[in-house]
Amino acid sequence: MSYQITLPRIIRIGRGALGETADILSNLRLSKPLIVTDATMVRNGTADRLQAALASADIESAVFSDTIPEPDTRTVAAVLAAVEAGRFDCLIGLGGGSPIDTAKAVAVLCVQGRAMRDYKAPHQENGPALPIIGIPTTAGTGSEVTRFTVVTDNDNCEKMLCAGLSFLPVAAIVDYELTLSKPPRLTADTGIDALTHAIEAYVSRRANAFSDGFALAAIRNIAPHLRRAYVDGADLSAREALMLGATQAGIAFSNSSVALVHGMSRPIGAHFHVPHGLSNAMLLPAITAYSIPGAEARYADCARAMGLAAGLDDDAAARALVAELRALNADLAVPTPKAYGVDPATWTTLLPTMAQQALASGSPSNNPIIPDVKAIMALYREAWCA
């Protein structure tokens, strides 16, 4: 049985890679990008640095900096209008996963039209799109190398997973220097997001030999360095390892899939505006413990990649993994939904809706144990104050 592997045409990795953007655009014969970013990248000068590098190569560009932390259909529409007005030939997503995901959505809509909801999974969109260059500034989502985007529908607060080759960037520029200014909370949340990608890619029912190698390599890079970067954001070797691990994890899950953690995480973000990486972290220990009976040996491999389980059998190694995920949440000050300030009455009322939306995303069907609505609601309750 064969499996399909998809990757950006160009992946440039390493310190100073941001300065090579003009060269990459020239190689791709692109000459007028719209830089899709956020206000932080403008305030800290990163957007200006990128524009200056492009201008030095006589590449005209413009900046849209009004993206929001969790992309929604209103923001996508605003960027789409800017693209149509400026006649740009490509999009550069600069920032965390949100600006990159926004750029991906716009790249498809500006060529194909239709509503964002028309691209919602299980639909796979492989048609034409404006070229996308992903430049991550957090070591987290891996969106710069994936064929997915996530956009919240403002009409019903549903966080929609959209998939297909149309959303895959043509180039990824991965420069760990861009993460050095990230505060501890963002470092923690994006780092656990990347770790979740790697673990879920490895235990997914769609895992394969190609994705397995990237998933385990990502775990080996992320696990020993996340606490270090959280404590000392200027730790260059930790930052470099986390950035590489996040990209490896993105390659892994883009070529296998994520699973139940992501399926349950998206409704939390949509309804309660919890950052994506943080909502993953809230759920990861409980869902891992729930899922282990369906893939014990695979979870044990994850523990061994984290350096936790030398000499232990699969059962003990898998239990060590859950214990480490709980300890990691404690060390990185990950709150429960209750501690985060989510209203308990609203949480309880929305449990059936969130469970249905999680299942509708398709990700839970990739989990080692496939849950029903009742099981998902029970896991949400467990995570509430775990």
Can you describe this structure in just a few lines?
With 386 residues, the protein is of the alpha/beta class. 52% of the residues lie in helices and 10% in strands. It is globular, with a radius of gyration of 20 Å.
Topology:
Elements: E1 10-13, H1 21-27, E2 33-36, H2 39-43, H3 46-55, E3 62-64, H4 73-86, E4 90-95, H5 97-112, E5 132-136, E6 148-153, E7 158-163, E8 171-174, H6 184-203, H7 209-222, H8 226-231, H9 236-254, H10 260-272, H11 276-291, H12 296-305, H13 314-331, H14 337-340, H15 344-360, H16 373-384
Parallel strand pairs: 1-8, 2-3, 2-4, 4-5, 5-8
Antiparallel strand pairs: 6-7
Helix pairs in contact: 4-5, 6-7, 6-9, 6-11, 7-9, 10-11, 10-15, 11-13, 11-16, 12-13, 15-16
Question: Could you characterize what this model shows?
Answer:
The chain has 386 residues and is of the alpha/beta class. Helix 5 links the parallel strand 4 (90-95) and strand 5 (132-136). It is built from 16 helices and 8 strands.
